[in-house]
Write a structure and sequence with these properties.
Elements lengths: L2 H15 L9 H11 L12 H16 L3 E2 L5 E8 L2 E12 L4 E11 L4 E3 L2 E3 L2 H18 L6 E8 L7 H8 L8 E7 L9 E5 L7 H9 L6 E4 L16 H5 L5 E5 L18 H19 L4
Parallel strand pairs: 4-7, 4-8, 8-11, 9-10
Antiparallel strand pairs: 1-3, 2-3, 3-7, 5-6, 9-11
Length: 300
């Protein structure tokens, strides 16, 4: 066996060892949560509004039902910020899953729950952006009930992503966990629809082991196309600073960002539950969980 073949064999062995034997998630619940979070009842979840407050209560209640412990006494990390001369009060939602093997090092799995609110009497419900990421975040909580992680995991639903990533900025600057103990970020922002059935993975070059492992994992995906890119090296738009993962990257914390290409309903009032692609979404979340298992095996 030559060196290249041996390396491929070893990488495949690592990947398949990361595939859990137990049931992953409840797909019906995954879709139901997106439908709820992107309903008119939450009025577009804009930071500082009653709609965002109600969405926050819903997310916290879901975490409690899934037996997630709060990282703060109330799950909340409150902060204030200025955006375009207006003062806002924001609130991150933070839960904690204790690791089985490396409990003193932390992986942050994140998704922002805010969106654009009400504009010109139209509600911007943000089903893909980013009710999809938040429901996927809650799916991780469900998954960890039967498949506890090796590293401790912080489940972070960030506020104010749409207003300059203020929630994630505040978290990394005022983290409740010592910053040197946070070893990785997995961020999900828009993962529920793609006309090309393509999910992009950004950040593979932020840790030396990620690229070969991800390339091996991608070969096993049959239902959707997984593409490593949008990292400034492939001629595509650079998404390194496109969402909350940028706040971690600026602190030299490696990350993987999962997202889809912009679609016709991006940042429009038509980004509704009826327009997501359920089969693509379910498979995307499945693949993200598999990717997490790869990351969780790395000895940072």
């Amino acid at each position: 066996m030559n060196t290249k073949t041996l390396l491929c064999f070893l990488l495949c062995s690592v990947f398949f060892a990361c595939i859990p034997s137990k049931t992953l998630i409840d797909n019906d619940a995954l879709l139901a949560r997106v439908k709820v979070l992107s309903s008119d009842a939450f009025e577009g979840r804009k930071s500082g509004t009653e709609g965002a407050k109600n969405a926050r209560s819903y997310i916290i209640n879901q975490l409690k039902k899934l037996n997630v412990k709060p990282l703060t006494p109330s799950f909340k990390q409150e902060f204030n910020f200025l955006y375009e001369t207006k003062k806002y009060a924001g609130t991150n939602i933070l839960g904690i899953i204790n690791g089985t093997d490396k409990p003193d090092t932390y992986i942050v799995i994140s998704a922002h729950y805010d969106h654009l609110g009400v504009q010109n009497n139209s509600i911007y419900n943000g089903a893909d952006d980013n009710a999809s990421g938040v429901s996927a975040l809650l799916a991780f909580a469900e998954y960890f009930k039967e498949n506890p992680p090796a590293h401790s995991v912080i489940l972070a639903a960030f506020d104010a992503e749409e207003l300059g990533f203020e929630g994630s900025k505040y978290f990394v600057e005022h983290t409740i966990i010592s910053q040197d103990k946070i070893v990785f970020n997995i961020n999900m922002d828009m993962v529920s629809r793609s006309n090309d059935s393509e999910l992009f993975i950004v950040g593979a070059n932020t840790h030396k082991l990620l690229t070969p492992l991800l390339n091996t994992a991608i070969l096993t995906s049959k239902k959707i196309k997984l593409t490593v890119g949008h990292d400034g090296s492939d001629g595509l738009e650079d998404w390194t600073y496109a969402s909350d993962h940028a706040s971690f990257y600026r602190k030299q914390i490696p990350f993987l960002y999962f997202g889809v290409a912009d679609h016709n309903d991006y940042h429009k009032s038509t980004d509704d539950f009826e327009n997501i692609h359920p089969e693509f979404y379910k498979e995307a979340v499945y693949q993200i969980i598999l990717m997490f298992n790869i990351v969780d095996k790395i000895n940072f």
